[in-house]
Amino acid sequence: MRQKVQRYGDKPISDGITADSAGNIYITDITANAIGVTNSSGKYQILYQDNQTLSWPDGLAIGPDSYVYGTVNQLHKSPPLNNGSNDATAPFLIVRFLTLAPSSVGR
Predict the structure, then answer these.
(1) Which residues, 6+ apart, have CB-to-CB distance to 32 below 8 Å?
(2) What would the DSSP string read from start to end of 12-69?
């Protein structure tokens, strides 16, 4: 058993994470309306950014087709995080993009 947690790399404020077989860690970037990746050397970069399509990207999962699937929930526009006002508007999206390397579940 390991005796300590080790630093892997950088990340933004996030709400979702998943990884592929090459050590790429896909991370939601809620402050930039983006999805990024921290590679195996620990460097973070934004992959996709869109103020409307990625308005608070949330959970991520890799499917058997090697796509990363994510939800977009506009959580920051909901009453608990928006001074009691509900400014969220449909549609609430599921987005996808191909992994940079094969995942452990497919390809």
Answers:
(1) 12, 46, 49
(2) -S-S-EEE-TTS-EEEEETTTTEEEEE-TTS-EEEEEE-TTTTSSEEEEEE-TTSEEE
Residue 76, CA distances (Å) to 8, 27, 54 in order: 28, 18, 12
Give yes or no for a contact between 41 and 24, defined as CB atoms under 8 angstroms apart: no
pTM above 0.90, yes or no: no
Alpha carbons 4 and 93: distance in angstroms, whole number: 38
Strand partners, 63: none
What is the b/e burial string over 28-39, where b = at least 16 CB atoms within 10 angstroms of the residue's CB?
bbbeebbbbbbe
Evaluate whether 18 touches 61 at the Cβ level (below 8 Å): yes
Give the model confidence (pLDDT) of 74-89 as tens digits.
877 888 888 899 888 8
Q: What are phi and psi of 77, to 5 degrees?
A: -100, 5
Contacts of 41 (CB under 8 A, 6+ apart): 9
What per-residue confidence (pLDDT) applies to 57?
A: 94
